[in-house]
Amino acid sequence: METKTMKTMMLVVFIALLGLAGCRSDSALVTEAFGPANPLFDQDGDGIPDNEDSCPSVANSGNDADADGIDDACDKSVGGSSDIDGDGVLNGSDNCPTIANPSQRNRDADLTGDACDTDADGDGVADKIANSDGSFSVKSVASGGDNCPLVPNDGQADFDGDQVGNACDTDTDGDGINDKTDKGDGSFESLAASDGGDNCPLFANPDQADADGNGVGDACETDSDGDGLPDGADNCPSIANPGQEDLDNDGEGNACDADTDGDGIADDNALGQPLDNCPLVVNPDQADTDGDGIGDVCDLVNDNEYACGVEGQPFTPMLASDTDIKAEASKDLSGCLLGLGLICEVQDPANVVDGDLTNTATLQNTDLLGLSTSRLKVAATTGFAYPGANALGIAFNESPQVLQADLLGGDLIVRTSLNGVIQEESTGEGLLDLDLLGASGVLGGTSTSFLVFQTEKRFDSVVIEFAPSLLSLLNEVNVQAVCASKTDLAVD
């Protein structure tokens, strides 16, 4: 009897244990066995967490032909293995799945082929209009369309007024003498006077008179700034500006106009410091809602709301698993001094592109004389280029106040580049100064410190350079991620 009672009690205990185990089987027990659940689990390795991925088991193509929110790669109503436009390229790989384009030409190296890209060269000026039936129509120059649809020319300079921009006009001044040749691939090459090219490419001189035989036509011999225009016809005679861009049409070229947009606010103050918070967009009221120093009319993002890797936000981290870019991180120690017990290194550069948004790549530099430089580069390796209208965000572990101080002091420099050529940088020494937006935000759902820069030029790589000085409060910088939008941003 006692044995039977004991067996019964043991059975009850066993059943209770099973019940407890069952209750914990989908959480606690799994956590104990395999570690904490990863909210950024990405089973198809395409850089999109499963909880945000419309195709969690198939790498996304970036296309959604029927606009139903499901990527074509796993949309049964479209099918990544189908070819709905009949151009010989399957939907899952087609950069224009509904418009036939067998060549897949993609001039600006974004996610959309030229045939269905409303801004094929990525210069911010539309060349096509998307119709409601899925087709596209050319946007005429007269209605604001791009006068060089396959050559970036955001200034739209057109010296001879023939509705063909200088950048792609083989006879820029319209005098019947060509100054460049069309290579047939969307690019152009200058034609030297010695090869029969125009000896005054920006000033009509069909006779090509050149009394001194120096290769420069008599009509533009007095050219102080060397931009091909005689001083008398140059809207900036002392500053080279072959495009002759004049945003406010006041007769003074942008290159030498103190108030480029003509809104009554000078671009810079007497000390050369920025004054107009939107120097290329008229805004006499200088409204700046988020107080980031960039006026509302040209501010692409509220820096207090910057979020990367969050559903519904355009900003995504540059990751090796992202099939669009296949990001690669590398270090450059060529600027490091040797000896003297100095530390100049970049530890774990791959951490910044590995998909774990909590780990970091660390730039180390103990040379406080500013003579030693360590660099971390994150680059797209697929040929993809990010659009220029962007907000580049770099997530750090450090205090945003300290980071901004080091940035403004020149100890920390951020650069963008395209095909190896610097486009913009935080010191203003590139083609255009990066505009600093803010230093706080969200990365994958977790608050972090961001330095965010508004860009205007396309880029395929980002370089972070660290050269601390005596005034620096840091000897190492920890970078979690580099974020950007793969599509153009627009002012709200």
UniProtKB/TrEMBL annotation:
Keywords: Calcium, Signal
Presence of the UniProt keyword Calcium in the record: yes
Name the record gives this protein: Thrombospondin type 3 repeat-containing protein
Region Disordered: start-end pairs: 41-68, 167-186, 240-271
Gene Ontology molecular function: calcium ion binding
Residues making up the signal peptide according to the UniProt record: 1-28
Keyword Amino-acid biosynthesis: no
Alphabetical list of PROSITE patterns matching this protein: PROKAR_LIPOPROTEIN, TSP3
Gene3D superfamilies reported for this sequence: TSP type-3 repeat
Skewed-composition ranges (Acidic residues): 43-53
Any single GO BP term: cell adhesion
Start-end of Basic and acidic residues biased regions: 177-186
